[in-house]
Amino acid sequence: MSVQTWTWLLVGITFALYFGIAIWARAGSTKEFYVAGGGVSPWANGMATAADWMSAASFISMAGLISFSGYDGSVYLMGWTGGYVLLALLLAPYLRKFGKFTVPDFIGDRYYSNTARTVAVICALIVSFTYVAGQMRGVGIVFSQFLQVDINLGVIIGMTVVLTFALLGGMKGITYTQVAQYCVLIFAFMVPAFFISMQMTGNIIPQIGMGGSVEGGEFLLDKLDKLHTELGFHEYTSGTKSTWDVFAITLALMTGTAGLPHVIVRFFTVPKVKDARKSAGFALLLIAILYTTAPAIAVFSRTNLIETVSNQPYSEIPEWFKNWEDTGLIAWSDKNGDGKIQYVAGDALSSKKPIYVEARGAHGERMVSNASDAKNELYVDKDIMVLANPEIANLPNWVIALVAAGGLAAALSTAAGLLLVISTSISHDLIKKQLKPNISDKGELTAARIAIFVAILIAGYFGINPPGFVAAVVALAFGLAAASFFPAIILGIFDKRMNSQGAISGMVVGIVLMLFYMMKFKLNMFGGGTSADWWFGTSPEGFGTIAMVVNVVISVVVSRMTPAPPQNVQEMVESIRIPSGAGEAHDH
Amino acid sequence: MSEKQKNASAYWKENLRYLIVLLVIWFVVSFGCGILFREELDAFRLGGFKLGFWFAQQGSIYVFVILIFVYVRLMNKLDKKYGYDE
């Protein structure tokens, strides 16, 4: 069977599965809609959290990103896993004991203030929308790459699928679909990795193969370092970023992870405090399977790529190279006219993406109009490392098709989780808690469903017309979460003296500072600036760390200058510190 | 302070002690071994890995997983000791 047939088949089967689960797990009450009835087992919640967490970016882009940046890519690996330690130790058990539906719920009650609740809702919406637009785009990309479907149609198909299981089942539908999606995505990620590890190093476990040796007895990593140095790239196992920046980015990603509302809300769905701790452990274990494999795939595919293309004549290049040229992820321009591919350090193009012209070159390659003066002749999109990996390694067609189904599972599960947070913020935190407190359970459920519908339309719109800033800011959603929620929640639990004045001023200053820095250095507003102008040499990705520290300092100083929180709030803090008597998540 | 409150605050103190120890380990394996002292550790090897690089891309993640499960065990015991188990 051809790759196309396999892909349609696998995507069809998995989609049918998701629909089936959605119908089986319909939600009847707000409690089922918001927190899946509070009766999800720790294992199922761990899987759902893992699928929720691992987005199109983790699945498709991360290995490629590491592949091209070597050691510098470690920030994602440590940042996106280390955050779970913070989540398990500092947040999840206490928030579960608190036992409401959302993060703004906690902020609003702990800081006895609807202003705090509103600030939290706004932060949640900003963080979730920047994130979800990227997911819808990811769905479109997978459809267009693998099934030659128009990218916009791909986005619409994705919207319809998410809409179905989110509208019907709310958190309950989403949780059980995510369990299925985790299985699909991890299988799709691991199978090619096993094959390639076996091929290159003779060891089937990629985590071990990565440190193993290749034919001739040389260690794989040493060989890759050597290849890199020969071609003028930086050594793979050492980076180019400053130690401080690596530190700042890692910490921002960790605290951002622990502060992301769609991840936190998952811990409201388990029955007991004990289960919240355990399910954070399961979630990280399941995530770690992918996160320790990704750097191995990065090393395998990087070595494979260099060996396959470097100094090879274009006429003898394998078929996959030309296929991906056609989809626009590879571009080659024969700058020195020798018919061979020179792949060395430097940007092959003068702008970010290739601009193809109609004509074909002397060797049949697609010509581009924006080739640069640098010696490097080859442009490779980083996404190709996962998408084309099975082809590069000559794996069977069904494995290639599997990657498409896995990418879709990753993007859809994350999108669904985010959309639910958006709709809950509106129906529960805004309508029920502020605008219309005596709305009935049924009315709130209808409002939640309308909110999810509108949110999907907006997300889909951004998926079809991606504003330039979406790609630039998705990674920064973490900085925003680190700068706003993380300190407010931690201080709310560990500092009994923290009051509403302190927390609100901290959150506002933190998120405004982060937004300002992002706009200045990413979007060139407020006078813009280059990396030389960065404050303390901190990149925008790492700035969340600084904004978070500022948030904490301001919160503590302001709270000590204003009156202590009321007695009943102090008692509430004492009660969330004790695990027993959590009961089910309830609505006052 | 009532008996109940004393129990609660003793529980909280022990909990904080666990947290500090576990978070120190969390910091040392990632920010310490994987970032701040990476270059020094790279002089040592673990099979084909330079040690600092291994901590940054593999080791720290394994330790994170272990840390959470150790925490789960410790807390379950602590809950029992103070009668908060359910």
Whole-number radius of gyration of chain A?
24 Å
Strand order of the largest sheet of chain B: 1-2
Strand order of the largest sheet of chain A: 1-4
Q: In this structure, how is the largest beta sheet of chain A organized?
A: 2 strands, antiparallel
- Give the termini separation of chain A: 57 Å
Instruction: Note the run of SSEs of chain A as H and E.
Output: HHHHHHHHHHHHHHEEEEHHHHHHHHH
Q: What coarse outline of chain A follows from CA principal-axis ratios? A: globular
Arithmetic mean of pLDDT of chain A: 84
Class from secondary-structure proportions of chain B: mainly alpha
Number of DSSP-assigned strands of chain A: 4
Annotation, overall tally of beta strands of chain B: 2
Largest interface: A-B, 49 and 44 residues
> Approximately what portion of the residues of chain B adopt beta-strand conformation?
under 5%
Regions with little confidence, pLDDT below 50 for 5+ residues of chain A: none
Q: Cα-atom Rg of chain B, whole angstroms?
A: 18 Å
Quaternary structure type: heterodimer
Total helices of chain B: the number is 3
Tell the overall outline of chain B: elongated
Poorly predicted residue ranges of chain B: none
The computed structural class of chain A is mainly alpha
Can you describe this structure?
The complex is a heterodimer of chains A (588) and B (86). Chain A is mostly helical and 588 residues long. Chain A has helices at residues 3-24, 30-35, 42-53, 56-69, 74-98, 103-110, 114-147, 151-201, 206-209, 220-230, 243-259, 261-264, 273-309, 319-326, 384-387, 389-392, 397-435, 441-464, 468-474, 477-494, 500-522, 543-561, 567-576; strands at 330-332, 356-360, 366-368, 378-380. In chain A, the strands form two sheets. In chain A, strands 1-4 form a two-stranded antiparallel ribbon. The radius of gyration of chain A is 24 Å and the shape is globular. The termini of chain A are far apart. The model of chain A has no long low-confidence stretch (mean pLDDT 84). Chain B has 86 residues and is mainly α. Helices cover 80% and strands 5% of the residues of chain B. A two-stranded antiparallel ribbon of chain B has the order 1-2. Chain B is elongated, with a radius of gyration of 18 Å. Chains A and B meet through helix 5, helix 10, helix 11 and helix 13 of A and helix 1, strand 2 and helix 3 of B.
